[in-house]
Amino acid sequence: MGGRPPPGGGVAGLLWPRGRGMLNRWLRARPAEKLTYTVFGLLFLVFWAGIFGLFGWLVDAFYGVEIFGPLLARKLLEILLLGLFALLCFSNVIAALSTFYLSEDLELLLSLPVRRQTFHTARQIDTIVQSSWMMVVFGLPVFVAYGYAYQAGWAYYVLLALVAPALVVVAASAGIAVASVLVNVFPARRIREGLALAGILALGFVLVVLRLLRPERLVDAESFESVAAYVAEMQTPVPVLLPPRWASDVLVAALGGRPLPWLELGLLLSGAVAASGVARWITARLYDGGRARAQEARAARLARAGWLDRALALYTRPLPPQLRALVVKDVKTFVRDPSQWTQVLLVGSIVLITLASIAALPLDVFRGPYVGLSRNGLAFMVLGLVGFVMAAVAARFQFTAVSAEGRGFWFVRTSPIQARSYLWAKAWPFLPVIVGVGEVLAVTSTLILGAGPFLTGLAVWTAFWLGLGITGIAVGMGAVFADFKVDNVARQAQGPAGVMFMVVALSLVGLVLTLEVAPVWLVLRSWFREEALRPWELALSGGCLLVVAVLCAAAMVGALRLGADRLWARELPNS
Q: What's the rounded Cα separation, in Å, for the pair 82 and 238?
């Protein structure tokens, strides 16, 4: 990536400005910013190593089980590939709408003497990078863990280098084609209905696939009439015409040292080329009409609704007038943008899938005198999953809150408002959403698992304070790494800064659960022994829960203060 753009108007020339901009951001960063990126990059490597270690242990444990081990490992790989492919398809629809139809640089690009084929290829690569790189980064340690557990040779990793990009290209092509059809079928003023339909279909697809695969039966051989039926269920593959089926067949053959399935490999590679060609053909036929429809003004029926004004007036009553105006502006801007508010459907999908997964846990394996203790212990561990979901939701809606201001931030910067007050206003709109998601997941999961009243109360306490801490970290780090030139704020949540936030937020979740281990152990032990807590045990338990509250509150306040100082220190030329 040199100082001059590549000659000509090819794909490299269209992609050069974005790559050069990323390089300049690093070269022109202050030493403190470079140190921050380096530290969080190392934390990301540690997080990556943790995923590798976890799945390496899990796959090795599955593989070590006699008779059923290889079947379980294969079924797990199929489920992972199918889920990854579904998420990639949905993510690429959202990214393609931005890169092909809503990006701010389209007016310049479409006025250049560039062939439409070159434009499509450059935008397709941009779509793949925006929507898929995080999936690839988080999926790569899983595939490497499989190779390590099976002690696979170099052929497995060569095939992985072919299979993974092909799967990503197929998903991106499908997303681009669907986005082109949606933009033309639904007028711009009704694009939110189209995206809502896409979100509902994606949710239904995921839930149907989960139910058809019945993952809860994989660990319960007793639910089958015979060993033969159990083995037959394990060997039942995913539908034959889906690319994840081809990918799993190729990888499983390479892992087991069996002959390479050339038909499946050929279908996957040729399918990637064919899908890219079909997407280009569909986009070429529909692009001009879709681009024209995308320029239509959005309807503002919801933003002008009287009930919304009354609800906002009630919700913002505790705030000062200037902050009240900022919150109202942010909420109305959010509901006017279909690419933003339709992603609430994704939050609902995550909540439903999480609850369905918890409900499918094989709770009947807990028998005997320790059944209550086991269920409560499992409910406590599920709080880690609740914290992960809260962090993921905050990454999309709160981490990007400052960047969503765009270039209009500099009008706010010159107004008579304090930096910390500004960030509090940014944290206020989605704070109930994060806390609400956490409370719903925490309470519902404890009830599903049959935990006692203590674990239910602990779940309520933990979700509330984690909501505050994660909110502060999200808004504070979003202010530190704010990008006011990004044309789609979802891209920032998928970038390196978004990954850094996830690492920090999950570190807070892990620290909170570590502090709560002592009170949970003491209470459950006293409950099992039918004894009352001793005074020092009661004091220790209460002290740990108080430390959790103080830690989360300090994380929120400290992160908002740090973000405010860094944000107000920025200057216009370097923004």
A: 8
Supply the pTM of this predicted model. 0.58
Residue 441, both tokens: 């997941």
CA triple 69-73-75, angle to 5 deg: 115
> 173 phi and psi, to 5 degrees?
-65, -45
Closest listed residue to residue 202, CA positions, set 355, 96, 83: 83
The identity of residue 21, as a single letter, is G
Residues 6+ apart with CB under 8 A from 401: 330, 426, 427, 429, 430, 474, 475, 478
320: which DSSP letter? -
Closest CA to 325 of 312, 338, 334: 312
Per the listing, tokens 């829960």 go with 545
Would you tell me the crossing angle of helices 227-235 and 69-96 to the nearest 10 degrees? 30
Position 138 scores a pLDDT of 72
**Residue 143 vs residues 73, 89, 209: alpha-carbon distances, Å:** 12, 20, 21
Could you tell me what percent of the chain has a pLDDT over 70? 73
CB atoms within 10 A of CB 375: 19
Low-confidence ranges of the chain (pLDDT < 50): 1, 188-189, 192-193, 196, 211, 216, 218-219, 221, 223-234, 573-575
Model pLDDT for residues 523-573, shown as the tens digit of each residue: 877 776 777 777 887 888 888 889 999 999 999 999 999 888 888 876 554
> At 225, is the secondary structure helix, strand, or coil?
coil
List the chain domain ranges: 45-297, 340-575
Dihedral angle sign, alpha carbons of residues 17, 19, 23, 29: positive
Four-residue CA torsion sign, 456, 458, 462, 464: positive
Q: What confidence tens digit (pLDDT) does each residue in 278-318 have? A: 999 998 888 888 777 766 655 555 556 666 677 777 777 77
Task: Give me the residue label for tokens 């943790």.
Answer: 50
CB of 313 closer than 8 Å to CB of 68: no
Amino acid at 398: Q
Q: What is the dihedral of CA 536, 538, 541, 545, to 10 degrees?
A: -130
State the Cα–Cα distance between residues 441 and 460, nearest whole angstrom: 10
Measured in whole angstroms, the distance separating CA 502 from the mean position of its chain's CA atoms is 9
Q: Which of 253, 231, 230, 249 lies closest to 240, judged by CA?
A: 249
Burial (CB count within 10 angstroms: exposed 0-12, middle 13-18, buried 19+), residue 355: middle
Report the alpha-carbon distance of residue 102 to residue 419 in Å, rounded.
Answer: 31
* Token pair recorded at residue 93: 């629809």
Residue 388: how many CA atoms within 13 Å on its side-chain side? Answer: 7
Query: Positive or negative CA dihedral for 485, 486, 489, 493?
Result: negative
